[in-house]
């Protein structure tokens, strides 16, 4: 069994033969409305033989090979879905219906609505009922708009039969023997690092002769996007057979938004002509979440019997444009870039310290305005039309980006980037560097380490993020004048700076290099450069303090005996008279008086603890637990009350996790915990990954 989810064959450009060997990679960004292709315009010979039927054109289109029948289903010509499809097994109780919105370039679309976790219906276009023999080879395409669907981890939604041959061997766990039916249902699931909640990855679910148990469930890493139109294409060719014996040469291929997402060429489905393809059509079947009110909306359903239509789009001028390469050449480059433009025309420029070429891979289309010049850097200049996607392959690192207006999304090899994190021009150019060039570079190297390292440093001049030595550009790394706070875990961060390195603290196993030479953080100022002081006022006050770096008591201070270090970043204590002093790195993340209250200082500046916890003790805790996860998990949530970071259960306090008002966005890495104190209720929560989520009510008493 082979599942290939790493292709970029653009089916609108080339019709593959059965022995083609496509290559490339899945796109890593969301999609805008799919432009409806015009390669299936009119129905073929079989419809002509039947006469002109409502909703089915009857002339042969260009590019259709001899013996191919092409059917376009125009929903606007029908009164109800049952006039197009055999509608059966409706478990939701909500009948499918034609709607006028949303549509994708037509007057009418088909809507099937969920009720609970129930199947909507089968809508089968059965070939024999429409005057055709059962074919052995079928291609079909349709546009899909998943409306309001949000899945829990491991939930699945089946969307289409492609194909279905009814019988005991086509569903329900029955054995498939080559004579009693078979099927393939396609859909999307919250698995394989789905870019949830915006998209979920495509899967194939087959009943065939060589499966064991229930259907053969095969995931890919190609997303179907929620709340927008997607183009879905599929091609199925039955295996050959003789004397009741099936050969292993059945073919299934599926394309998502122009990208080949799945392919197998060794299926055994049938041993007899009476068990060829019965039909294709929409299907709504959820396993997991309650999707009441959500729907699957279909448009532009087109079918070709006997092959794949040719000549579907113009081929980009690969031979004429030396900076344009075919998607199949992706393996020759280390990185891929997707530039998705918004709803206005934009001009942009990208600097790369290596080589970059344009490619119409995945959802990208050829942009004839792209100009690539090579000098000290490879520089891309382009004008992007509204709603378009430009694609590139490159080696090296992106060092600068300027765009007016900024793109709606920018992706590099699966990671979404913020253009504002890059300078408009390379840091070592005259305009970008200003009066004093950023002649030094500091590299914080976390490659090969097993846990997060938090770092903090100060320089005597200016500092800017840099894509140096394979470093990433991380939006969560904070720069305030010459003061930098960030973290690494299995990757590198780099910065160019002017002046001298004056302070450096690293909490974790990462190493640091300055201008290529390893340095010892102990040689640069104090490891814990900041001082926190709590002053007693004669009445007992209990407190808890958390920082996003490291905290420790001061030698010889009362804090050594009277305060408690709950973790590397959290301390607590009770004070009546005298002072408690702590040294810490990073920033003060949380200061809470559990009871009482008194004066608190950071350095020589008195602070208001209410600025760090809104003056209340937040009683509840939410913990995102990555200790048993197989990789990092992205999460976001909103509270209808207050929320702050917490070290509850010895959670880490990552500077990259952001709390904006009552909204939180963060990443919990494997073997770590993220935690937050809150009051009120959780209004919204999304999780991409397999981390656990625990909610603890009334962990701390609230002092009324």
From TrEMBL:
User: Which portions of the sequence form the region Disordered?
Assistant: 14-33, 412-435
Instruction: Locate the compositionally biased regions of type Low complexity.
Output: 19-28
Question: Its domain of life?
Answer: Archaea
User: Acidic residues composition bias: which ranges?
Assistant: 421-435
> How is this protein named in the record?
Uncharacterized protein
């Amino acid at each position: 069994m082979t599942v290939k989810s790493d292709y970029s064959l653009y089916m609108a450009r080339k019709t593959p033969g059965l022995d083609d060997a496509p290559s490339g990679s899945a796109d890593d960004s969301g999609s805008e409305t799919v432009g409806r292709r015009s390669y299936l315009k009119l129905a073929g010979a079989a419809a002509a033989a039947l006469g002109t039927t409502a909703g089915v054109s009857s002339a042969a289109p260009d590019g259709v090979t001899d013996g191919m029948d092409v059917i376009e289903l125009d929903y606007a010509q029908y009164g109800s879905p049952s006039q197009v499809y055999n509608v059966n097994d409706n478990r939701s109780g909500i009948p499918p219906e034609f709607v006028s919105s949303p549509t994708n370039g037509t007057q009418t679309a088909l809507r099937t609505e969920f009720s609970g976790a129930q199947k909507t219906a089968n809508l089968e276009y059965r070939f024999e009922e429409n005057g055709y023999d059962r074919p052995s080879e079928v291609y079909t395409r349709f546009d899909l708009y998943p409306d309001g669907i949000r899945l829990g981890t491991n939930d699945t939604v089946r969307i289409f039969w492609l194909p279905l041959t009814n019988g005991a061997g086509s569903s329900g766990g029955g054995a498939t023997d080559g004579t009693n039916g078979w099927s393939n249902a396609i859909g999307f699931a919250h698995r394989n690092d789905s870019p949830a909640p915006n998209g979920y990855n495509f899967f194939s679910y087959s009943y065939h002769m060589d499966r064991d148990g229930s259907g053969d469930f095969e995931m890919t890493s190609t997303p179907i996007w929620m709340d927008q139109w997607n183009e879905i294409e599929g091609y199925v060719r039955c295996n050959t057979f003789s004397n009741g014996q099936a050969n292993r040469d059945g073919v299934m291929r599926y394309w998502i938004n122009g990208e080949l997402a799945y392919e197998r060429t060794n299926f055994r489905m049938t041993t007899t002509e009476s068990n060829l393809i019965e039909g294709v059509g929409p299907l709504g079947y959820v396993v997991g979440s309650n999707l009441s009110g959500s729907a699957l909306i279909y448009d532009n359903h087109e079918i070709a019997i006997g092959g794949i239509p040719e000549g579907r789009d113009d081929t980009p001028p690969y031979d004429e444009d030396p900076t344009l390469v075919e998607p199949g050449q992706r393996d020759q480059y280390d990185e891929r870039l997707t530039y998705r433009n918004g709803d206005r025309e934009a001009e942009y420029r990208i600097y790369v310290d290596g080589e970059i070429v344009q490619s119409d891979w995945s959802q990208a289309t050829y942009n004839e305005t792209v100009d690539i010049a090579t000098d000290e850097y490879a520089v891309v200049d382009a004008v992007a039309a509204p709603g378009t996607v430009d694609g590139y392959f490159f080696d090296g690192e992106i060092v600068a980006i300027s765009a007016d207006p900024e793109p709606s999304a920018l992706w590099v090899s699966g990671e979404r980037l913020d253009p504002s994190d890059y300078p408009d021009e390379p840091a070592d150019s005259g305009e970008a560097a200003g009066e004093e060039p950023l002649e030094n570079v500091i590299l914080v190297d976390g490659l090969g380490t097993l846990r997060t390292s938090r770092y903090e440093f100060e320089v005597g001049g200016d500092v800017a993020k840099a894509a140096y030595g394979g470093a990433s550009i991380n939006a969560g790394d904070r720069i305030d004048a010459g003061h930098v706070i960030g973290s690494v875990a299995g990757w590198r961060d780099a910065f160019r700076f002017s002046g001298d390195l004056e302070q450096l603290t690293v909490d974790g196993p990462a190493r640091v290099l300055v201008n290529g030479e390893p340095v010892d953080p102990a040689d640069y100022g104090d490891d814990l450069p900041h001082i926190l002081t709590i002053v007693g006022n004669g009445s007992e006050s209990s407190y808890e303090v958390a920082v996003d770096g490291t905290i420790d008591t001061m030698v010889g201070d009362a804090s050594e005996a009277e305060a408690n270090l709950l973790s590397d970043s959290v301390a607590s204590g009770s004070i009546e008279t005298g002072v408690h002093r702590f040294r810490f790195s990073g920033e003060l993340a949380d200061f809470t008086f559990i009871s009482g209250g008194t004066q608190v200082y950071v350095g020589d500046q008195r602070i208001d603890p209410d600025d760090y916890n809104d003056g209340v003790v937040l009683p509840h805790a939410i913990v995102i637990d990555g200790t048993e996860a197989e990789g990092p998990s992205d999460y976001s949530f909103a509270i209808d009350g207050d929320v702050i970071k917490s070290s509850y259960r010895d959670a880490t306090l990552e500077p990259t996790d952001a709390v904006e008002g009552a909204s939180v966005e963060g990443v919990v890495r494997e073997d770590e915990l993220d935690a937050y104190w809150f009051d009120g209720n959780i209004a919204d929560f999304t999780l991409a990954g397999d981390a656990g989520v625990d909610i603890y009510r009334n962990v701390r008493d609230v002092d009324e």
